[in-house]
Specification:
Elements (H helix, E strand, L loop, with lengths): L2 H7 L4 E16 L2 E8 L6 E5 L10 E13 L2 E13 L1
Parallel strand pairs: 3-5
Antiparallel strand pairs: 1-2, 1-4, 2-3, 4-5
Length: about 90
């Protein structure tokens, strides 16, 4: 599905292009690999899951489609971005 169709169908999605990855961490989460990506000048982590490890994105430029979520841990709220689509720019 194209980015334009996704954005029209889901109003809460945001699409950003040419964002620089500062940090990329991968760790096992059951049968999945959980990826946490930090983007230059943005404090919230970008999270996505895959069934296999992914090549390191550190230092790369990426295009992402994501939405904002808030996770509560020990009574404290943390903002994070759930990635729906990620591609190298």
């Amino acid at each position: 599905m194209s980015v334009d169709k996704l954005l029209k169908r889901h109003q809460s999605l945001t699409h950003s292009e040419n964002m620089k990855v500062v940090s990329h961490v991968q760790r096992q989460d059951g049968d999945w690999v959980r990826h946490t990506v930090m983007i230059e000048n943005i404090d919230a982590p970008f999270i996505f899951k895959r069934t296999k490890p992914y090549q390191s994105l550190k230092g790369a430029r990426v295009n992402m489609t994501y939405y904002r979520t808030v996770e509560s841990v020990a009574g404290m709220e943390f903002e994070q971005m759930k990635v729906v689509r990620i591609k190298r720019a």
